[in-house]
Design brief:
two-stranded antiparallel ribbon, 201 residues, seven-stranded antiparallel β-sheet, 32% helix, alpha+beta, globular
């Protein structure tokens, strides 16, 4: 299994209802292909040409996220997104990519390690759609059209296409808020990022 963020952990026996067999679940998880890599589906007759999901060690996560955005949103003014798990994220106004990455970078640690936070960047156009979205389990979802550039970037990070790839939330998993001294509470992170989406318009 790849390296997980601090706010995502495998449940122990006290976390799961007695109706579940935790030993059986843990056995199946240990045999699953929850490793670094990505799945890829090419699309036709849509505003994007491919859809991908990516697993990567948390130590390499931020670098990949930034490079993905730099490749897919080159010379564009996309929109930032931030939110709480299992809710519709707040979508900001159009900003330069450098502005968005700067806003997110101030909360890099919290965004990557808090199991309650989700974020991303998207560009909505009449004839095209591109999005890089990170859910609270820190799986990267990508909708885009620059397939060759995407594959090249995956190669640079030694990430292999794997049609059998599985994800941490395919099995019971605990997502927790980050409660560390000196780190911002997830509600503060969301509120400040939302306000800066507006201030930087």
């Amino acid at each position: 299994m790849y390296k997980l963020p601090k706010g995502i952990r495998i449940p122990n026996i006290t976390d799961i209802s007695n109706e579940f067999n935790i030993e059986e679940i843990n056995k199946k998880r240990s045999e699953a292909k929850i490793v670094e890599g990505f799945t890829l589906k090419e699309e036709k007759n849509k505003k994007w040409s491919f859809y991908a999901r990516i697993n990567i060690d948390i130590d390499k996560f931020w670098n990949l996220f930034c490079q993905l955005c730099n490749v897919l949103f080159l010379n564009q003014n996309p929109r930032g997104m931030v939110g709480f798990k299992n809710t519709q994220p707040y979508v900001g106004k159009e900003l330069s990519l450098s502005e968005l990455l700067s806003i997110f970078s101030d909360y890099e640690y919290e965004l990557l390690n808090d199991g309650y936070l989700e974020f991303g960047i998207a560009n909505f156009r009449e004839n095209s759609f591109c999005e890089v979205f990170v859910n609270n389990f820190k799986i990267i979802y990508v909708w885009g059209s620059k397939l060759e550039e995407f594959i090249l970037l995956m190669d640079q990070f030694n990430l292999q296409k794997n049609d059998c790839l599985q994800f941490i939330n395919d099995f019971p998993v605990i997502s927790e808020a980050l409660l560390e001294d000196g780190k911002s509470h997830y509600l503060e992170v969301i509120d400040d990022i939302k306000s800066r989406f507006v201030e930087n318009r």
